Amino acid sequence: MQYTGEMTFWLLTIAGVSASGKTTLKEYLAHELHQHFGFQPTCLAMDGYYCDFSALPPSELKEVNYDHPDSFDSISLVNDVRRLKSGEPIYSRDYNYVQHKPVEAATQTYPAPIIILEGILPLHFSEILTLSDLTVYLDTPIDRCFERRLCRDVQERGRSMASVKRQFETHVLPMYSDYVQPQKQVADQVLADGGQCPVLLENIIQRVEQCRG
Question: Does the structural domain 10-212 have CATH classification 3.40.50.300?
Fold first, then answer.
């Protein structure tokens, strides 16, 4: 749906390590905000903005660190978020983990009055921090995240248990300490885990209603 006329576009950004519950929280908020305001928030996943690694040989693909900030096309991410905040449409992205490249949607995504961005490192980028109206960090225990990631990557992404464990130990944990966890210091709100959070929902509703006058 395209919104016209004078409109304020409000951005919620959710950060947290892989499998911390970001998607679950995003889906809960999107559903409840739809029920309250009558429109579906525009949701954007940072995962869709990984760089294209499809040209790398198999030996180098194994070494790609998807948890490092340099693995993201941050310029495209910031540009798309800025366009949505300005009321302009974008061609949203998804990431093909089998072919190791982003896939652009065939149709445009128009921004709703509420935009939700979620990912492992959005608050690492100062431009995203500036564009955000509310930032949330999920401080989910890292061992719980590993258990969730193991199930997800084996079942949904065709990975072996050994490769998931190796990646977690060599990539996820070091990047968690160096880049992911420090986002906790700049977030407006810190939650112990993802999932349903009525307090956060009410906070968002109050803030959005204030912006809408």
Answer: yes
